[in-house]
Amino acid sequence: MPEPRSDQSSAFADLLEANERYAADNELSGFDGIARAGVAIVTCMDSRIEPLHMLGLTHGDAKIFRNPGGRVTDAALEALVLGVHLLGVERVLVVPHTRCAMTRMSENELREKITELSGQDAWWQHFHVVADQHAALVEDVHRVTSHPLIQGRAQVGGFLYDVDTGRLTQLV
Fold first, then answer.
1. Torsion angle, CA of 67/70/76/79, rounded to 10 degrees?
2. From CA 46, how far away is CA 5, in angstroms rounded?
3. Which residue of 2, 52, 84, 85 has the fewest CB atoms within a 10 Å radius of its CB?
């Protein structure tokens, strides 16, 4: 294991201090990493979403994969295959949310905005914007249910999380 950095005046000092408090009471020490509730969640990186709490779950109950828009990307599929075969996943929830920033702009509008903000050309970057959230959810659930390494091994549902009410509605 690498030696920890001694520079405590770094931009991460407050987080490392908080981690020390967390580690002092770590209740998951020795946990095997199996999803205790048999659940995997693919959702957005939006900080208004608390994937475990919204389902009444706690640490160790579920595998969580987050990305902009909560899309079932190739990386998400990879995680789900591993979850289903190695980590006890029996149910998969695909969960985009209301008022998602990935639904507000077109791909080109987002590239223009990032170019403007960064001062760098962002036209080469793909951001996977979501033009039609319901159609994207149907597509994403199909990607999971039709994957040959997942098909028939887990129940899969498509849900929409309302960031204002905290309610989850099954759409697929």
1. 90
2. 30
3. 2
